[in-house]
């Protein structure tokens, strides 16, 4: 019990199961706050980072992020012909390589923004020109930079990253190109907050990636650090003090009906999870949810896929509550029980995320709808969707309520980006 609460619980990228986030990252705190009255804003906006080590098999539980700085000197390419994808990169002649970022975006080339570079990688892999296991990878090649600057200069700039890559893949990036592929990295959506970082629940403040406030539809490099510093150092220390000084704060004791109900609900949920004794592990169901989200609500979305996701997620949630197996008990530390509770929230939150993506009939930043593009690039609809979508919980089994906060630009007017 507290007079004011600060949620700094991070983002919800692990709804995809595989992401660059730590495995402990989850949506539980923010989603449960949403169910208690806090509006959840823009959940569909997800940043996909283009420079990650590709998935090597179903055994993986997370993905590894390689620094974006590598694209300063590395050149991204795939074979021009599908039949060359099985060859060693050294056996593919220069004229048979497609440096697709340099070709499509000559002004920015390999330094194209994250959403652009990620979708371009998906596009060439979907064409059957991806490399590595499963064809889900593109090359990041440092041969030209090493020839131009020398290996010692590249080692000085990226030595720790090259060492990490070699430890994970057993491939020497000084000798052969790295293989990279996009992965979920950051979530721009979160609980809606005002300029004092307070949610729609009085006294509940939300900072960092857990709120929606600073990033809009896209996130630039290092701006998560900016948001954490701004929220934690320069805003919240003043605004929460003002709230505590001015709000009427009646004393609440542990026998308050809401407190008693919350404890009872947690105990009942714990008992329910432990009693199911089904045949599926928590991770197997989480992995299936992640596959649905990645395929239907990942880098590229469309109406058909999103509607399919809205049909599949409730079925998977039913499977979870009827067939999950959570070993151990609730009497001691039980990580399987922790994961099950988090997955239960992910299985509900995923519907909200897909609902938001379906309603936003435009392409904007981290949300790319295949139906809304022009010459292969994102096509916004500022006339219809220049607002933050703040979703309100309406009760179990009921569709969420959409609240719109208009985006007003007084000094810098909206314009269309072009990186060509």
Describe the SSE topology.
Elements: E1 5-7, H1 28-35, E2 40-41, E3 46-52, E4 75-79, E5 97-98, H2 100-104, H3 114-126, E6 138-141, H4 143-149, H5 151-169, E7 178-187, E8 190-191, E9 204-206, H6 223-246, H7 257-275, H8 282-297, H9 303-323, H10 335-359, E10 373-374, E11 377-378, H11 382-385, E12 387-392, E13 401-406
Parallel strand pairs: 1-9
Antiparallel strand pairs: 2-8, 2-12, 3-7, 4-5, 4-6, 6-7, 10-11, 12-13
Description:
It is a single chain. The chain has 420 residues and is an alpha+beta fold. The protein is built from 11 helices and 13 strands. Strands 3-7-6-4-5 form a 5-stranded antiparallel β-sheet. A hairpin with a 2-residue loop joins strand 10 and strand 11. Helix 8 runs parallel beside helix 10.
């Amino acid at each position: 019990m507290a007079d004011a609460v600060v949620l700094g619980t991070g983002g919800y990228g692990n709804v995809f199961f595989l992401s660059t986030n730590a495995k402990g990252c989850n949506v539980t705190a923010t989603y449960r706050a949403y169910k208690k009255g806090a509006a959840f804003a823009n959940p569909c906006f997800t940043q996909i980072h283009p420079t990650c080590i590709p998935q090597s098999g179903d055994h993986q539980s997370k993905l590894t992020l390689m620094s974006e700085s590598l694209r300063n000197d590395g050149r991204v390419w795939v074979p021009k012909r599908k039949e060359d994808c099985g060859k060693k990169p050294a056996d593919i002649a220069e004229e048979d390589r497609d440096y697709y970022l340099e070709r499509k975006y000559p002004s920015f080339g390999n330094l194209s923004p994250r959403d652009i570079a990620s979708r371009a990688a998906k596009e060439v892999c979907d064409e059957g020109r991806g490399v590595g296991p499963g064809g889900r990878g593109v090359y990041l090649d440092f041969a030209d930079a090493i020839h131009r600057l020398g290996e010692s200069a590249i080692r000085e700039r990226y030595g720790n990253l090259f060492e990490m890559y070699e430890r994970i893949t057993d491939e020497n990036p000084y000798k052969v190109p790295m293989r990279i592929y996009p992965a979920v990295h950051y979530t721009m959506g979160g609980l809606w907050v005002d300029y004092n970082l307070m949610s729609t629940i009085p006294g509940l403040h939300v900072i960092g990636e857990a709120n929606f406030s600073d990033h809009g539809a896209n996130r630039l490099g290092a701006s998560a650090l900016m948001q954490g510093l701004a929220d934690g150092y320069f805003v919240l220390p003043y605004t929460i003090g003002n709230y505590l000084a001015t709000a009427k704060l009646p004393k609440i004791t542990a026998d308050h009906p809401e407190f008693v109900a919350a404890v009872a609900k947690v105990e009942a949920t714990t008992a329910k999870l432990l009693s199911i004794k089904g045949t599926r592990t928590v991770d197997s169901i989480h992995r299936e949810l992640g596959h649905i989200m990645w395929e239907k609500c990942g880098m590229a979305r469309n109406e058909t896929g999103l509607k399919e996701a809205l049909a599949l997620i409730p079925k998977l949630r039913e499977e979870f509550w009827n067939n999950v197996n959570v070993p151990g008990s609730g009497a001691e530390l039980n990580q399987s029980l922790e994961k099950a509770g988090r997955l239960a929230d992910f299985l509900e939150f995923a519907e909200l995320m897909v609902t938001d993506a379906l309603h936003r009939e435009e392409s904007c930043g981290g949300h790319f709808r295949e139906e809304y593009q022009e010459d292969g690039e994102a096509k916004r609809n500022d006339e219809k969707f220049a607002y933050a979508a703040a979703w309100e919980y309406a009760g179990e089994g009921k569709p969420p309520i959409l609240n719109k906060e208009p985006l007003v630009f007084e000094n810098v007017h909206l314009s269309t980006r072009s990186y060509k």
